[in-house]
Specification:
mainly alpha; 8 helices; two-stranded antiparallel sheet; about 5% strand; about 200 residues; single chain
């Protein structure tokens, strides 16, 4: 099968991911707004958890005083102490999650959505080696069956084929945020230099 025929089918996939500029901007604005809401949630949660952590530290101090005063026995002290320290460790884990928030995910997703929307333009202007990198980055599997190209795409590109209007973005963002966030961050972190340079110049 001529390479040109295979490449033509690859190009059709890139074309199917093209996003009109006004639709892309609307999608990115929705992502920014959703991120601001989540930032407020994380900030409020962090404040609440810090307050609880301070209360637990006070309780540990009082618990130690009660033991020294022989107001409670050692067994009760150990049990109460263990309960409090378990909760302190849980708070530390929760704080770490909230501090991480969704900042990296928001950056990764907005960048990859932009890549998808401009993939065809980037592909057209790329060298042969850069085209191979781009294909390897966006496609997770690619094979020929007869003269037909069979493929799968990495997330979130698999959800960005033939997105025609803004109404489709809300369930898409919900899906990737809850089920594919780590895959998207991982993909973002291994972005080829061609794409990285293009996104940097356009930012």
């Amino acid at each position: 099968i001529p390479e040109s025929k295979v490449m033509s089918q690859v190009e059709d996939v890139f074309k199917s991911m093209q996003i009109p500029s006004e639709v892309l901007e609307s999608a990115l604005e929705h992502l920014r707004e959703a991120h601001e809401v989540e930032k407020s949630f994380h900030t409020e949660a962090i404040t609440r958890l810090h307050r609880e952590s301070e209360d637990l530290s006070d309780r540990l101090d009082k618990l130690t005083d009660l033991l020294l005063e022989s107001s409670i026995n050692k067994d009760l002290y150990s049990k109460k102490h263990q309960d409090i320290t378990h909760r302190q460790h849980a708070i530390s884990r929760e704080l770490e999650q909230h501090h991480d928030g969704n900042g990296e995910f928001k950056t990764a997703l907005s960048t990859l959505v932009t890549v998808a929307g401009k993939a065809w333009e980037i592909f057209k202007s790329s060298t042969t080696d850069e085209k191979r990198q781009l294909i390897g980055y966006i496609f997770s599997n690619l094979e020929l069956k007869g003269d037909k190209l069979q493929y799968t795409l990495h997330a979130p590109f698999d959800l960005l084929v033939n997105i025609e209007d803004c109404q489709n973005w809300h369930p898409l963002f919900d899906t990737v945020r809850t089920k594919r966030s780590m895959a998207i961050i991982t993909l973002y972190n291994r972005m080829p230099s061609k794409l990285l340079n293009t996104m940097t110049l356009q930012s």
